[in-house]
Amino acid sequence: MAAAAALALATPFAIKSADAATTPAATSVTAAQALAAVQANMTTANKVNSKPHINTMTRAQNVNVYQVKPGVYAYTSGMAIDTDGSDSDPDPDHQGETTWQDSNGKALGAHHVPFYVLGDDCWDRTSPCPHFFYQDHNMTGRQFALMFYNGKVIGSIFGDTQTANNQTTSDNDSRELGEASVKAAQLLGIPSSGTTGGVDNGVTVVMFSGSSWVVSGTNATLNDNAQARVQQALDSLGTGASTPPTTPPGSTVFEAETGTLSAGGTFDSNHLGFTGTGFANPANAAGAYVDIPVTAAAAGTKTLTFRYSDGTTVARPATISVNGTSRGTLNFPITADWDTWSTASISVPLTAGANTIRVTGTTAVGAANIDSVTIS
Ligand code: GCU
């Protein structure tokens, strides 16, 4: 009974939701806006660590932590699944303890509490620590964080630590970032099995330091208490300078979702940061396309700038045609994930009035997700 109530309250904020009760008020910062604000500040100038962290899932040494505003720290990594604590789990690595406890002193339950994992110590044993070490940043157990993934955001707490470097029995390493509890994975729609679950990339964790962001509660209430802080945290991050993207004077934006798709394509809204009401997701096939209707005030050579995302590991080249005539191929290189948008431009002749721009994928994976085309 308590579990059912907790689940209802813990429904993650959907970016596009038909349910008015879960849609933030118009004056509130949305998940997409807050993530854009965070990403705009994940810059070299704001990097906290001088040596890279390790993605727990892929073991790539390419994870950095950024101070995105005073006292707020963000990283993007994969998510490995932590099953530890007071809930039983078939995972052979399951341990009964978590580093931090609930307000009754009980080990956290990985199936009830959305928690994230940080390094247990400064791996290098030097000060200042060349890595992000929570003790240096006014953080302790049950410190609140937002976790963003695939169009969703949840609240979570700092619950467990990655094995210290004085334990040599496994490849665990306190430089790792990218692990969270079964419950966090479930709320974000990530496979949550401790042995086969997790995701390699695309999870952004935004940690809020200071005693006012320490969440109290028991294993039965911590999830609700964490979700109750989500909107306040989003609002504190603001909307970010990069959303919506600035349009240079004299240019016009045409949204891909006003167009039409070849068979198998869909207009989606399940990734963060799009403009308009969604984006085009052409079918995963060579020759699959999206047609975008545009208008030009006068005939002439214009620059088409496509806003797109490709969260895979390979570029998605596509030919660009105007009114049925091919005008060249753009490469559409990969972006950090499906929530990150980049641009690709090409010069083409347009006729006065209505024109149709077709983006056709040339490889078996099809074209990238296309948000819009800007004419300048
Ligand atoms: C994922 C992603 C889609 C994308 C697709 C693809 O399913 O969520 O937005 O279009 O991959 O590979 O094209």
Structure write-up:
About 10% of the residues lie in helices and about 30% in strands. The chain has helices spanning about 1-10, 30-40, 180-190, 220-225, 230-235; strands spanning about 15, 55, 65-70, 70-80, 115-120, 145-150, 150-160, 175, 180, 200-210, 250-255, 260, 265-270, 280, 290-295, 300-310, 320, 325-330, 340-350, 355-360, 370-375. The chain is mainly beta and about 375 residues long. Strands 1, 3, 4, 5, 6, 7, 9 and 10 form an eight-stranded mixed β-sheet that branches. The model is unreliable at about 1-10 and about 15-25 (pLDDT under 50).
Give a brief description.
With 376 residues, this protein is mainly beta. The chain has five helices and 21 strands.
Write the layout of secondary structure elements.
Layout: H1 2-9, E1 13-14, H2 31-40, E2 54-55, E3 66-69, E4 72-82, E5 115-119, E6 144-149, E7 152-162, E8 176-177, E9 179-181, H3 182-188, E10 199-208, H4 222-227, H5 230-237, E11 252-255, E12 260-261, E13 266-268, E14 279-281, E15 289-296, E16 300-309, E17 318-322, E18 325-330, E19 342-350, E20 353-361, E21 369-375
